């Protein structure tokens, strides 16, 4: 297949490009810059110049490919409503291009906010419905196109997609620990996070494109529940720092923006995904990655 990947130079996207190329697929990646285009072409992929606001580039990339993986997001925390509008328009442009073709379309989402009090399941629908909702309701929009001739699927990622070079939540926690001299956790540290190594996440995307039926939700989750205190303690050991419970009043000052998430249960099951696609995560665990020094750099 020729696969069009948005977010192709990002943390998950770059691993996905490598996975697809390694499996013998052709890749066309969306590139916003000369550096991004060069990185893709250096791997043997084709660079499609454009961005999420350039709907013509998205239509062209989707129209010239056999499958689409949508991983890009503007992540404009200061303008969430603009971010949501952009996401909705971008996804709709690609889906309209694919409508009636039965080609696969994989859309990224997270597991946070799906349910409370238990692990999220693949059968749990996203509560974000409609243009004014989180991410423009793009997951539900994509799955709706399963009835319009698109083999669409949602790939929901654990809050920690980890590995050496990660720039996500755990990196922010490590930076907060180095800055303050303490590896902190909120409250008693009993909040639960799921985790997946990025190579396992990339392999799930590739398997999904190749064989997942239309309309499914897939969970890129290798470890269902990692206590946040265990994450903080592993960072403390790796960084040579003490651990401490951080109270709600100090959370913003200590953690920064990641403090909003670190006290939340963000965990999910992937039992259905594993059974459906025979996906077997094989990468190191989050704690193993932390203790190996993946987050110890200055």
UniProtKB/TrEMBL annotation:
<dbReference type="InterPro" id="IPR051783">
    <property type="entry name" value="NAD(P)-dependent_oxidoreduct"/>
</dbReference>
<dbReference type="InterPro" id="IPR036291">
    <property type="entry name" value="NAD(P)-bd_dom_sf"/>
</dbReference>
<feature type="domain" description="NAD-dependent epimerase/dehydratase">
    <location>
        <begin position="3"/>
        <end position="95"/>
    </location>
</feature>
<dbReference type="GO" id="GO:0005737">
    <property type="term" value="C:cytoplasm"/>
</dbReference>
<dbReference type="GO" id="GO:0004029">
    <property type="term" value="F:aldehyde dehydrogenase (NAD+) activity"/>
</dbReference>
<dbReference type="InterPro" id="IPR001509">
    <property type="entry name" value="Epimerase_deHydtase"/>
</dbReference>
<protein>
    <submittedName>
        <fullName>Oxidoreductase</fullName>
    </submittedName>
</protein>
<dbReference type="Pfam" id="PF01370">
    <property type="entry name" value="Epimerase"/>
</dbReference>
């Amino acid at each position: 297949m020729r696969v069009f990947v948005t977010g192709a130079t990002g943390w998950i996207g770059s691993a996905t490009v490598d996975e697809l190329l390694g499996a013998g697929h052709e890749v066309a990646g969306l590139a916003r810059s000369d550096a991004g285009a060069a990185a893709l072409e250096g791997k043997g992929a084709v660079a499609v110049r454009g961005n999420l606001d350039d709907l013509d580039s998205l239509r062209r990339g989707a129209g010239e490919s056999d499958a689409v993986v949508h991983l890009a997001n503007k992540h404009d925390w200061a303008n969430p409503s603009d971010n949501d509008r952009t996401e909705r328009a971008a996804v709709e442009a690609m889906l309209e291009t694919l409508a009636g073709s039965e080609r696969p379309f994989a859309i990224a989402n997270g597991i946070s906010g799906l349910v409370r009090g238990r692990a999220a399941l693949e059968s749990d629908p996203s509560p974000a419905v409609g243009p004014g909702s989180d991410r423009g309701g793009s997951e539900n929009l994509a799955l709706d196109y399963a009835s319009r001739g698109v083999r669409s699927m949602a790939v929901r990622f654990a809050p920690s997609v980890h590995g050496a070079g990660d720039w996500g939540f755990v990196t922010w926690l490590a930076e907060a620990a180095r800055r303050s001299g303490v590896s902190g956790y909120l409250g008693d540290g009993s909040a639960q996070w799921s985790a997946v190594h990025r190579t396992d996440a990339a392999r799930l995307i590739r398997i999904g494109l190749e064989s997942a039926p239309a309309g499914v939700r897939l969970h890129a989750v290798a470890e269902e529940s990692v206590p946040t205190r265990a994450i903080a303690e592993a960072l403390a050991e790796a960084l040579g720092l003490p651990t401490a419970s951080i109270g709600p009043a100090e959370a913003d000052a200590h953690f920064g923006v990641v403090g909003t998430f670190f006290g939340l249960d963000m965990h999910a099951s992937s039992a259905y995904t594993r059974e459906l696609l025979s996906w077997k995560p094989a990468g190191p665990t989050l704690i193993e990655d932390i203790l190996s020094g993946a987050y110890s750099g200055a």
